[in-house]
Amino acid sequence: MKQYAVLEYVVDVLQKAIIGSKVKQIRPDESAIIDGNASITIQQHFESNGSTAAILIRDEREILYSEELLETIYKIQEGANYHAGLKAALSITNFVINGLNIEAELIFHAIRDYFYSLSGSYEFLNFAERDIQQMKFNMNFGDDVTFDLIVLNEPDSIAIEAVIEKSVAPAVKAAINADVEKVRREINKQFKKDEVLEKVMDFKVKDQ
Q1: How many whole angstroms separate alpha carbon 80 and alpha carbon 71?
Q2: Mean pLDDT throughout 71-82?
Q3: What pLDDT is attached to residue 92?
Q4: Percent of the chain residues topping a pLDDT of 90
Q5: What is the DSSP string of the chain?
Q6: Model's pTM, two decimal places?
Q7: CA dist., res. 104 & res. 44, Å (int)
Q8: Is the pLDDT of residue 187 over 80?
């Protein structure tokens, strides 16, 4: 089966990076990378003029994160120097992973890691919303408190807000909001300082 060049290149890069994985070609615009009992589905979407609009990746087991391949995807055009047309196509392609573009996906993992580094009481539960640059997810704080975290990735800043029920004790609410502010400052420092995302691919907490 002959597949589109952008899709074929992305699949080839990721499959080689995930040791022991195999590729299953589904359609000219879709493939799956099989890694044991898990899989990553990759689809190429087009604009009306035939240009690649997006590569949509479904990675429910977070294989790309665990294999530290988010940076590879973000900079994937840099490895296509041998083919100027392919490099140009990759540079304007929007990579969307599990509903978030690659920048927002990096930001999510960095936020989660920062919370975990602040306290072992935090636990990520699940996503309530993933919409390209905006996300909402549930977190636990200790055994009894669950709250929503809303994150909006804007061009110049990242907004983070905790939505906590009124019944939560004021001291606990204050502690969570203080941590949210710490994370907000660090995330903006990491992702929005100087040249945006040029130096942020070390998205995991340094001391972990």
Answers
A1: 15
A2: 83
A3: 86
A4: 73
A5: ----HHHHHHHHHHHHHSTT-EEEEEETTEEEEEETTEEEEEEEEE-TTS-EEEEEEE-TT-HHHHTT-HHHHHTGGGG-TT-HHHHHHHHT-EEEETTEEHHHHHHHHHHHHHHHHH-TTEEEEEEEEEEBTEEEEEEEETTTEEEEEEEEE-SS-EEEEEE--TTS-HHHHHHHHHHHHHHHHHHHHHHSSSSTTTS----S-TT-
A6: 0.81
A7: 19
A8: yes
The whole-angstrom separation of Cα 92 and Cα 51 is: 9
Percent of the chain, pLDDT > 70? 89
Model confidence at 52, pLDDT cuts 50, 70, 90, reads: low
Average pLDDT rounded to a whole number, residues 143-153: 95
With 0-12 / 13-18 / 19 or more C-beta atoms within 10 angstroms meaning exposed / middle / buried, residue 98 is: middle
Residue 199: exposure state from Cβ atoms within 10 A (0-12, 13-18, ≥19):
exposed
Q: How many residues does the structure list for the chain? A: 208
